Amino acid sequence: MENPDTPPTKIAKLISHAGITFEVFRPEELPGIPIFGEPRQRRNNSSSDSNNKKRKADEEEEGWEKRRRTTIECELFDRVFIGLETQACNEGERLPRLPDWLNAVREDQWDTRAPGVFLVQPSLEDFRTRFVEMMGVLEAIGVEMGVVKIKIPEGWNDSPPIPSPESDSAPPDLELYTMTQRLPLHPSSKSNLAPIYHVTSSTKHTISASRWRDIIRIPTRPAAALSEIKMCFRGRQWNNILTGIPRDGPTHYSSDNDITDDLRSYLSLSDPKLTSLPGNVLHDNITAVTGIHTPYLYIGQAYTMFALHTEDYNALSLNYQHSGAPKSWRVCSPRSFTALEDFIAASIPNTRNCSQFVRHQSIYLPRETLEKAGVRSTLVRQFPGEMVITWPLAYHQGWNEGVNVNEACGYGNERWRELFPERVRRVKEGRGAGGGVYRACSGRCVGREEPVRLVYGGEE
């Protein structure tokens, strides 16, 4: 007996052409083929709703991005030189004249010999009493170049805390976050002339501070400068790519360690009093955020690096070097931030899901790549006793030329507060023209960490 569930036998018409025989069926004999005149099947409502939500979110994000760029152009870049006496500098750039009391010199970039970062060397008295004035004078240079170096005057730092008699060895709980790093090419890197590197870090683990103390104390002879080309080349060696371990061994980097008095005492670190510098309105925030309101400690070995990023809330950053080999920075001009973001969004597919998408990529862009993207950058070498200051919208990245010890924290002046957190608050209250210029990570982003949110008095 014939099974009623068995579909009827399809009768095919045979057609031969050029020695090939084809089977031809009528449309109604094939399952799933729409017949002319039949009503179209409705799409799944949940899928349609999801697509509509995504399209609406994309349109909203695009509109916010346009308002953000227009606001920054009008309220920051167009106003920075108002009332200042400027002078022509490198390749047509115009920068303000700095007062004599800053004892400013402009260093050369050691890879191209082009004019580079300004190093200011105030006296101890001027540094102590005129710091807010100094930051105001340096504002225009920071907006143009994104970076300034300050030589901390002798006598400013406080001595390391006196260790207790029993602290000759590290206490059991005195440990430092540590990770290993590599620098392979990013999967989306397509051009040898403009490579994109992926800063790959292992999961952080803790090790005893005594191990790092022993490394720091080892006398080192002055080494040849570790160039950007050499640093990147090491990450592309076949042995590194195949095994995950560089030929001359892994490099270790200790980052994001909250500095305590015990840690300063144990590592014999003086206190540059970064959080005590006047004019820092970040401290008006209702709650403190470690690493922003309090300093973080960083200990690096040769070839360790930090990926391209800007600070949370586009704040300024204060970065002091205690000891060791130079730390090299590549800092992009704030005026180039749109060109940089557009280049990364075009080079790495499906990345622009939130306003912090650049930092989520964990990438390094060498000078030739930045030049191709139309981004102006400055190579800075930082030495012990110097403080590097980065400005809002200045994307920066870098590497360590050898073992060194650094600490950093955030800084915000009144101009920063007016443009970033205050504007965010006014827009939320419906009182802001234009739009907010900063957004923390949203639900669409791929970041794994909780976004930093600054809350000032009067905000919810």
Question: Mind explaining what this structure looks like?
Answer:
With 460 residues, the chain is of the alpha+beta class. 26% of the residues lie in helices and 23% in strands. The chain has a domain at 99-412: Sandwich (Jelly Rolls). The chain is globular and about 100 Å long. The model has no long low-confidence stretch (mean pLDDT 82). Pfam families: JmjC.
Strand content: 15-25%
Number of H- or I-type helical stretches: 12
What is the CATH architecture assignment of the domain at 99-412?
Sandwich
Computed over alpha carbons, the radius of gyration is: 28 Å
Number of strands: 21
Please name the CATH topology of the domain at 99-412: Jelly Rolls
User: How can the largest sheet be summarized?
Assistant: 11 strands, mixed
Helix coverage percent: 25-40%
Overall pLDDT, averaged? 82
Structural class: alpha+beta
State the CATH class of the domain at 99-412: Mainly Beta
User: End-to-end span in angstroms?
Assistant: 77 Å
- What oligomeric state do the depicted chains represent? single chain
The fourth-level CATH homologous superfamily of the domain at 99-412 is Cupin
| Uncertain residue segments | none
